[in-house]
């Protein structure tokens, strides 16, 4: 019987997601418009910082960031794993609906289509929603304030990126995007 430690299960979920993400990046449409390198750095660097914060092992005497936000004795491992799996699964579902329109950076593709079905019926940026839920699940497992800080940094990073994406989409799709935007929340279904 194969036995995985708690940390290995979390790591395997993230590695499987990264592998899927890398493989699915092939065969996308050619970009006809893209953001600058500096713009990309403005949201990529914070995501890297958030990821590092989520991977730092707890340090005794590490100060507030390494103090627990969950009371001692609460085992939040399995709820955290469920959040990670659900979040990563949601982001994969969204990625599949985007198909060849997907890109890791802010771009407009040749013959770009406005996708409004599947998870895009629920939120305009379901990939970010899913990744944020997975970050939150990881933070719950860690149980330290540095995990919450990581989620907040990731949220800020995705908010920066989605603001730019929405500008590109409004300029590309005009009133069709405005109508979609008016009826669909950005990140949290029916709320925000």
Short description:
The chain has 192 residues and is mainly alpha-helical. 60% of the residues lie in helices and 4% in strands.
Question: Could you explain the architecture of this structure?
Answer:
The protein has a single domain (36-183), classed as Four Helix Bundle (Hemerythrin (Met), subunit A) (Up-down Bundle). It starts with 5 loop residues before the first helix and ends in a 9-residue tail after the last helix. 60% of the residues lie in helices and 4% in strands. The protein is elongated and about 55 Å long. The protein has 6 helices and 2 strands, in the order H-E-H-H-E-H-H-H. The relative contact order is 0.17.
H-E string: HEHHEHHH
How are the strands ordered across the major sheet?
Answer: 1-2
Query: What class, by secondary structure content?
Result: mainly alpha
Shape: elongated
Low-confidence stretches: none
Which class in CATH terms? Mainly Alpha
Total helical segments: 6
Please identify the oligomeric state: single chain
Strand content: under 5%
Distance, first to last CA: 45 Å
Radius of gyration: 18 Å
> What is the average per-residue confidence, as pLDDT, rounded to a whole number?
91
CATH architecture annotation: Up-down Bundle
Describe the sheet with the most strands: 2 strands, antiparallel
In total, how many beta strands? Answer: 2
């Amino acid at each position: 019987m194969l036995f995985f430690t708690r940390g290995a299960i979390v790591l395997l979920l993230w590695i499987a997601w990264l592998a899927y993400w890398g493989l699915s990046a092939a065969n996308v449409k050619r970009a006809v418009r893209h953001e600058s390198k500096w713009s990309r750095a403005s949201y990529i660097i914070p995501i890297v910082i958030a990821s590092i914060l989520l991977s730092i092992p707890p340090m005794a005497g590490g100060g507030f960031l390494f103090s627990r936000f969950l009371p001692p004795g609460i085992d939040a491992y399995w709820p955290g794993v469920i959040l990670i799996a659900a979040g990563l699964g949601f982001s994969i579902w969204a990625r599949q609906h985007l198909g060849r329109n997907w890109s890791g950076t802010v771009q407009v593709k040749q013959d770009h289509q406005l996708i409004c079905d599947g998870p895009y019926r629920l939120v305009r940026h379901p990939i970010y929603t899913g990744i944020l839920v997975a970050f939150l699940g990881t933070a719950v497992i860690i149980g330290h304030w540095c995990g919450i800080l990581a989620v907040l940094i990731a949220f800020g990073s995705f908010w920066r990126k989605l603001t730019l994406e929405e500008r590109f989409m409004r300029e590309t799709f005009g009133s069709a995007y405005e109508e979609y935007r008016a009826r669909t929340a950005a990140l949290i279904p029916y709320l925000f």
